[in-house]
Description:
Elements: E1 8-12, E2 16-17, E3 22-23, E4 30-34, E5 37-38, E6 44-45, E7 52-53, E8 56-57, E9 59-60, E10 65-66, H1 68-77, H2 85-102, H3 109-123, E11 125-126, H4 140-144, E12 147-148, H5 150-165, E13 173-175, E14 182-184
Parallel strand pairs: 1-4, 2-5, 3-6, 4-7, 11-12
Antiparallel strand pairs: 7-8, 9-10, 13-14
Helix pairs in contact: 2-5, 3-5
Amino acid sequence: MDCPSLSEMTFSGETVLDDLSVYGCDSLENVTFSDCKLTSYNAFRECPKLYTIDGKTVFDNVKGDFIPEYKDFIFSHFNGSDNVGSINDYVIAQAGLIAKEYTNDSMSDMEKVIALHDWVCGKTKYTEGDINNKENHNDASVFMNEYTVCEGYARACNLLYHMYLLRFMNFRVRSFPNVSTAWVT
């Protein structure tokens, strides 16, 4: 469903949401679930204003984490989401915490890159499942799952490098047609 002007959605009864059921909803701010079966972790994508579920703000900006009441639900049903407001905030907050914990001002830029790279690689393993699974192809995969693929590793490293430490350096995620990998250059 491409819904650029819809601000609220309610799912009830025997509704089953599949991959990309809700895509490109730039104005979507709230979703309500009432006895709904969610079968996809990737039902929501490109919904940058989605911050509330059942009318409750699910991300606590002060703590940098999801509110406990919804954390398991979000990790189960939104972990493949990309560019969803509350997921974006969670990933950015977690990246900030990781950068603070694993680097310091006395480190050289290369030491910071290595420390963050090592954290990402130590936190996750390469998926043993379907490498085409969308949940593995975003930066959230590193912060919300225990597994990812090359693109997830590259996007998480790129985020960590750019947002918190090495803003003046030129990093970007690269992938090429007919090559099933991605990396930070």
